[in-house]
Amino acid sequence: MWRLAARGVDVVGIERQGIGHSFGSSHGTTRLFRVACMEHPGLTAIARKSLGLWTELGERTGETYVRQTGSLNVGTPDSRPVTGARKAAGAATTDLTHDELAERFPQYALAAEDVAVWDPDAGICYAEPTVRAHVAEAERLGATVYPHTMVTGIDVRPDGVTVRTPTTSITAEQVVICTGAWLSKLVPGVSLSPRRTPLFWFQPRDPASEAFRLRNFPAFIWEFADGRGLWGHGSDEDFLVKVGLDGAERERDVDPDELDRYIHPRKDIAELSAAIADQFPGLDPEPVKLMPCMVTDSLDGQFLAGRYGDRVVIAGGDSGHGFKHCAGIGELLAQETTKETPYTDVSFLDPHRF
Ligand SMILES: Cc1cc2nc3c(=O)[nH]c(=O)nc-3n(C[C@H](O)[C@H](O)[C@H](O)COP(=O)(O)OP(=O)(O)OC[C@H]3O[C@@H](n4cnc5c(N)ncnc54)[C@H](O)[C@@H]3O)c2cc1C
Asked: Taking every annotated instance into account, which residue ranges of this chain make up the domain FAD dependent oxidoreductase (predicted)?
C-alpha cells in the first residue's frame, strides 16, 4: 500500500485487525535482518531494497527500522547457513574459522567442526514499528486505510475487482492480496501450510553480563549436525535475548482462525530450553517471556509474490524468513501492479511455480 501510494496510485488498504496487532505473523519487537540470505541467492537484492526504503523512511520519521550490527551464519562447512550465505549474490561476507569464531564469540559452545560466515550488512529489524510506519506513510501519501474490516470475498470480473466486507464493498482495477496465514482462504488453490511458532525471550544467567548485548551477541543462525538449529540475537534495549529453535516438532496446517494461543510449558519450551542449555551456557534456559505466532510455509520454503491473475497480485508463504524483505517485496508488488519492470529477477517467487 505504501509503495503504491508513493507512485500516486489511488489505493485502499483493508485490515481485519487493528494496525500493529498480534494475531498474525508480524508482531514481537524484532526480526533478524540478513542480507546474505541462505534461502536463495536472489533474496540479497530484495533485502537491500528493504534497507534502502527503510533508511529513507527513517530519515523522514526520525525512527530506526533496522540496526546493522552484522550477523553470523554458523554450522559445519557444508551446513546450509554457511554454504547458503556464501552463495548469496552481491553480499560482502567474510569466513570465520572455528578458532576465530570461538575467540570472538565465546558465548557459543561450538562443535569441533563449526565455522561461520559473517554477514556485515545484516542486523535486526524492528517489526511492529515498521508495520505501523508503512501504514502511516501510505496514509500520508494519500492511501485510505480501513482497519478492523474483514474482507469476506473477492469477485474478479473482466472489467474490475470487487472486494466485499460486511459493511461495504470496494470496486477497483486490481487487488493485491497479502493476508499471511489466511492467504489460501482468500485465494483458493494456493497451497500453504500455517505453522504455530511461538516467540521466546531469555536472560543471561549473570544479569550484569555484557556478553549478550546486541553489540556482543549479534543476530545468528546456527545449524547443528542433527539438522535442528537455533537463531536469535542479543539486545541493547530491553536486555532480553531472543532465541528460537528450527526443526522442532510444530503443529502444521493449522487453521489461523483456530490457532492455539495457550503456551504449553512442556511441549513448547522443553526442547528449546535443552538446546540453549547445551549451546549457550551463559543464558538462563528458562524463557522470561513468550508469545504465540505463526509461520506460513510454502512447498519449497520460498515466498509466493507476483501476479496471480489479470487483476490479482498476491504475496505470502513467508516460510519464516519474510519480514526483512517486506518493503522490498512491497516495491515489487507495486511494480507488478503498475506494470513497471521489476528492479530484480523474481522468477523464483512466481506464485504459479507449483
Ligand atoms: C517466530 C517467528 C520468527 C520469525 N523470524 C523472522 C526473522 O528473524 N526474520 C524475518 O525476516 N522473518 C522472520 N519471521 C517471518 C516474518 O515474521 C513473516 O515473514 C512476516 O511477518 C509475514 O508477514 P505477512 O504480511 O505475510 O503476514 P501478517 O503479518 O500475518 O499479515 C497478514 C495480515 O492479513 C490480515 N488479514 C487476514 N485475513 C484478512 C481478511 N480476510 N481481511 C482483511 N485482513 C485480513 C491479517 O489480520 C494480518 O494483519 C518470523 C516469523 C515467526 C513466526
From this structure: 2-335
Task: Give the range among 216-230, 253-267, 325-339 with minimum mean pLDDT.
Answer: 253-267
Whether residue 122 is found in the same domain as residue 240: yes
Total domains, the chain: 2
* Beta carbon of 351 within 6 Å of any ligand 1 atom: no
CATH for 309? 3.50.50.60
Ligand 1 pocket test target in 199, 303, 318, 333 with most atoms within 8 Å of CB: 318
Q: At what angle do helices 326-337 and 127-140 cross, to 10 degrees?
A: 30
202 & 113 share domain? yes
| 352 falls within a domain | no
Is 90 exceeded by the pLDDT of residue 319? yes
At 248 the pLDDT is: 74
- CB neighbours of residue 191 within 10 Å: 11
Residue nearest to atom 27 of ligand 1 (CA): 180
253 Cα–ligand 1 center, Å: 16
Distance CA 351, CA 349 (A): 6
pLDDT score at 267 = 86
Is residue 250 scored above 80 in pLDDT?
no
Give pLDDT tens digits for 9-62.
999 999 999 999 999 999 999 999 999 999 999 999 999 999 999 999 999 999
Same domain? For 217 and 103 the reply is: yes
With respect to residue 56, please indicate whether it lies within any of the assigned structural domains. Answer: yes
**Ligand 1 centroid to residue 236 C-alpha, Å:** 25
* Domain, as residue range, for 339: 2-22+147-193+299-347
Determine the Cα–Cα distance for residues 220 and 113; give it in Å rounded to an integer.
Answer: 17
CB-ligand 1 contact for 242 (6 Å cutoff):
no
| CA–CA distance, 238 with 193 (Å, rounded to integer) | 33
Mean pLDDT calculated for residue range 141-159: 97
Q: Are residues 48 and 11 in the same domain?
A: no
Q: Are residues 122 and 222 in the same domain?
A: yes
